[in-house]
Amino acid sequence: MSFLSGLAEGFIGLFNEGGSVFMGLVTGIIPTLVVLITFVNAIIKLVGEEKVENLAKATTKYRLTRYTIFPILSVFFLTNPMCYSFGRFVKEELKPAFYDAAVSFVHPITGIFPHANAGELFVYLGIANGITTLGLPLGDLAMRYLLVGIVVILMRGIVTEAITKTMIKKRSEA
């Protein structure tokens, strides 16, 4: 009988833990995201959607800037996870590549601008702890992390764009 009661306690414990995680989201990140979304939308309305779209068009015209400057600006100003909302200013067929570039940049920016992805700061701090243990400077690590991140998001954006275009072409041929 104790086996069954232990099983029952474990079963309800799973849902209690899920409820705790949900409450953490409701009292933590969700209100922050709602306020951030409202703020960004208000800024866009104040500045003018046309001006923001023109800036987005200018920074997404070429692959080089589309998968470097545009995701960097979105991650820096909007932080993770709100940065993905900048995808609304990208052509539909480029959205997967923009998302790939932006999601790939939320860690490399953390070394210099921890506000951009504070929830995942532990990844950078784990690496930084090893570097400081070796007596090496953190500034070099942060810059290398950032620069390698920019190269990676450019490569990922270009590759994802090519894959997306191939898939769209195959779908239209079918």
Topology:
Elements: H1 2-27, H2 29-47, H3 49-60, H4 63-66, H5 69-78, H6 95-105, H7 121-133, H8 138-173
Would you kindly provide a written description of the structure presented here, covering whatever features stand out?
By secondary structure, the chain is mainly alpha-helical. The protein is 75% helix and 0% strand. Helix 2 packs across helix 3, helix 5 packs across helix 6 and helix 6 runs antiparallel to helix 8. It is globular and about 65 Å long. The model has no long low-confidence stretch (mean pLDDT 86).
Keywords:
mainly alpha; 8 helices; 174 residues
Spans of at least 5 consecutive residues whose pLDDT stays below 50 are: none
SS-derived structural category: mainly alpha
- Indicate the overall shape: globular
Distance between the termini: 59 Å
What is the overall number of helices? 8
Question: Which bin fits the share of residues in helices?
Answer: over 70%
Q: Main β-sheet: number of strands, strand sense, barrel status? A: none
Strand element count: 0
Mean pLDDT: 86
- Rg is 21 Å
Order of helices and strands: HHHHHHHH
Tell me the strand percentage band: under 5%
Compose a concise summary of this entry:
Keywords: Membrane, Transmembrane, Transmembrane helix. The chain has 174 residues and is mainly alpha-helical.
